[in-house]
Write a structure and sequence with these properties.
Structural class: alpha+beta
Strand content: 15-25%
Low-confidence stretches: none
CATH class of the domain at 2-66: Alpha Beta
Mean pLDDT: 86
Number of helices: 2
Length: 93
């Protein structure tokens, strides 16, 4: 299953809304079934107020976005010392 990011937009009225959300789908990008999965997820997240909203754009989410809450570890070790190589080849004529 792939992770996708969808952009939604509400109709232009007193307070238009737009935003993004992520969802999972087993269908390929930009297929009808993929957009249908995005719509189902949008309705699941926002409820009845999202019935009139439309999905404007669907794109593949990056792997880093799926694991965003994970904190990166810092490495405080000394850098490895590089070993100098011989500049002259011995034993060759």
């Amino acid at each position: 299953m792939g992770v996708f990011r969808a952009t939604y937009q509400s109709p232009r009225n007193a307070n238009p809304q737009s935003g993004q959300f992520t969802f999972e789908s087993k269908h390929p990008l930009n297929s009808k079934a993929n957009e249908q999965d995005a719509r189902y997820k949008m309705l699941d997240l926002f409820g009845n107020e999202a019935v009139a909203w439309s999905i404007t754009h669907v794109e593949r989410a990056k792997a880093a976005e799926a694991d965003a809450p994970v904190q990166l570890g810092l490495d405080f070790r000394e850098p490895k010392k590089t070993r100098r190589r011989r500049t002259v080849e011995r034993g060759t004529l």
